[in-house]
Specification:
Layout: H1 3-20, H2 32-40, H3 42-56, H4 64-86, H5 95-118, H6 122-138
Helix pairs in contact: 1-3, 1-4, 1-6, 3-4, 3-5, 4-5
Length: 144
């Protein structure tokens, strides 16, 4: 296991936990487009989380067992996240969110595998880590 990606994955999971503990008052909860938009946010959130987990586990490009392990971890955290939301006032757990979590995790992980296979040079990995750190740093700004 690699330390820096594991630490980033842990902090990123904490950021998701923080967002789940927030009540977003004054939002039009009954509007279908608002519900669709908030559900679609799960896709990139858990997709980046899956990529960080894959990097922490030193995921080679073609290892299906490790991909399955990452997806089990993403799905498990999605379930725990929805359980956590059930205890947050103004939030409710939804099974559909877990489905979107897993789809986002798998989709972005497959994209990352493809990009990493093509761009195995150090500059591409540094660019990924920079993007991950920026994404992690901007999580608190989503509440504004």
């Amino acid at each position: 296991m690699r330390f820096v990606p594991a630490l980033l994955a842990l902090f990123y999971a904490g950021g998701i936990w923080y967002l789940s503990s927030r009540s977003f008052g004054g939002t039009p909860r009954g509007d279908w487009y608002w519900r669709a938009a908030t559900n679609l946010v799960h896709f990139p959130l858990f997709g980046i989380f899956a990529c960080l987990l894959a990097e922490a586990l030193c995921l080679p490009v073609a290892r299906r067992r490790r991909i399955a392990l990452v997806m089990v971890l993403v799905a498990s955290y999605g379930v725990v996240d929805e359980w956590h939301q059930s205890m947050t006032p103004g939030r409710s757990p939804e099974a559909w969110d877990v489905v979107v979590d897993v789809a986002g995790g798998f989709g972005l992980l497959m994209l990352w595998r493809h990009l990493r296979a093509d761009l195995e040079r150090r500059w591409a990995l540094r660019l990924f880590w920079l993007a991950a750190i920026v994404a992690l740093a901007t999580l608190p700004l989503r509440q504004l």
